[in-house]
Amino acid sequence: MLRAPLSATTDTAPDPVLIEDPAMLSGQESLAARHVNAFARLGTPAMIRNATSRMLLLRHCGIDLPVTVDDAGIGRSYVASPHSAYVLYARDEIDIIGMTWGRWGAQGVLGAMDGLLRAMRINRAVHLDNWLLSTNLHGQWDGRGIADMRAQLAARFPDHFVILRSLDPWSCPDLLAAVRADGWELLPARQIWVTDDLARDWRPRNNCANDRRALRRSGLTVEEPEDLDHEDCERIAQLYRQLYVGRYSAINPVFTPAFVADSARSGLLHWRLARNKEGTIMIAAGIRATGGIATVPLLGYDTDRPQSEGLYRIASYLFSEWAMERGLRLHGSAGAGTFKCNRGAHGVIEYMAVDARHLSPLRRTLLRFLAGSLRALMVPLLERQGW
C-alpha cells in the first residue's frame, strides 16, 4: 500500500542532500556510501571497464542512494546507457537468439529507434538508485521522497533526463506506484524471471533434483569466503567475462577484479564459489540480497569445459539453494526463460522510469512517443515470445 502523499514529505523532511565530494564519504557507514566511495576513489572505468559514469550519493528521508551521471556517450554498458539497453543490446540479441524470420524488420525498427534516441540525447542522463548492476534491487525503499529527489536532481542537472531503472510490480510495487503517482514516463525494458517461493516452486521439481545430482557428481567443493584474494578476484572476473561478455554481449558491464574485491569487502555481494580438486574456481556467483529478495548480478563459470559437466546448471543450483535456505524470493533477471520456467520461475515486465519535465518541449515529446510505442509494441512481443 502506498504511503502518505509524496508531497507531504516536503513539509516535514529536509531537502535531499547530494554529496558530490568524495572526501565527504570517508568513514560513512551505509552500504551505498561505501559503494559510491569506492567508485569515487578508483574511478568508474577501474571498476567497470565500459562505463564512465560519475557516481554521487543522494541522502534523503533517512536513506542513502547512489546516483550516476553520464554525458551522452554512445557504446557504453547498458547499466548507465539507455541507448545501449534499447539499441545495442537488442542488436546483439538478434544474433544470440538466432532470429531469421523478421530479422530485417527488427533491424529496421532498431535503426529508427537509434535515430530517435540519439536525437533525444537519451544518454545525457542522471540515474537514481543506480548501483551499476544489471538489476538494481531497491530494497525497502518504497518511493518515499521521490518527488523531492527528482526535483533536486533536475535542478542540479537541468539538461539531463532523470532515470530510475529496474522497476517492476513484483520486487518493488510501492516504488513503482510512487513513480506512477509522481508522473514519470514508464518505458518497458525487459522481461525478468522471478520465483515467489523456492521451497514450493523450485525444490520439488525434477530439474532441481537433477541439478543437485550434477553438483554431487562434479567433485566440486562449494565455499562462501568473506574475503577474496587477488588471484580469486582475477579468476572471477575472467569467468564472468567469458560468459556474459564473450558469449553474449560486450554491452554487459565488464566488471574488473577491483570491482569483485570491493563487492566482497563492502558487503555488496555475497560470494558462493565452486572449486575443482586443484583449487581452481570453476563457478562464481555474486549474490545481492536485500528487502527479502536475492538476485545474481555477477555470475560466471568456465565455458571452456564440456557442456556435459553442467556447470551452468550447477551455478543456478548454488544461488537458488542459498536463497531458499534464507527464505528469500529469487529475482532471476532476464534471459534463459525456458530454463528458469522449468525451475519454477514466471515472467514479469520490468520498466525504466524517465522524467523529462524540466527539459525542452522537443525532448519531452520524443520521450512520450517512445514510451507509448514501447508499451504498445514491446510488451506484447516479450510476453508472446518469452524473451
Per DSSP, what share of the residues sits in E-state strands of 2 or more residues?
15-25%
Category from helices, strands and their pairing: alpha+beta
The end-to-end distance, rounded to whole angstroms, is 30 Å
Helix-strand pattern: HEHHEEHHEHEHEHHEHHEEEHEHEH
From the spread of the alpha carbons, the general shape counts as globular
Explain how this protein is built.
- This protein is α+β, with helices and mostly antiparallel strands.
- The chain contains 14 helices and twelve strands.
- The protein has helices spanning 9-12, 31-42, 44-47, 82-96, 103-120, 146-156, 173-181, 198-201, 206-218, 230-248, 257-266, 311-325, 337-341, 361-385; strands spanning 17-19, 54-60, 63-71, 124-128, 161-167, 185-195, 221-223, 270-275, 281-290, 293-301, 329-331, 346-355.
- Strands 1-2-3-4-5-12-6-11-10-9-8-7 form a twelve-stranded mixed β-sheet.
- The model is unreliable at 1-11 (pLDDT under 50).
Can you summarize this structure?
With 387 residues, the chain is an alpha+beta fold.
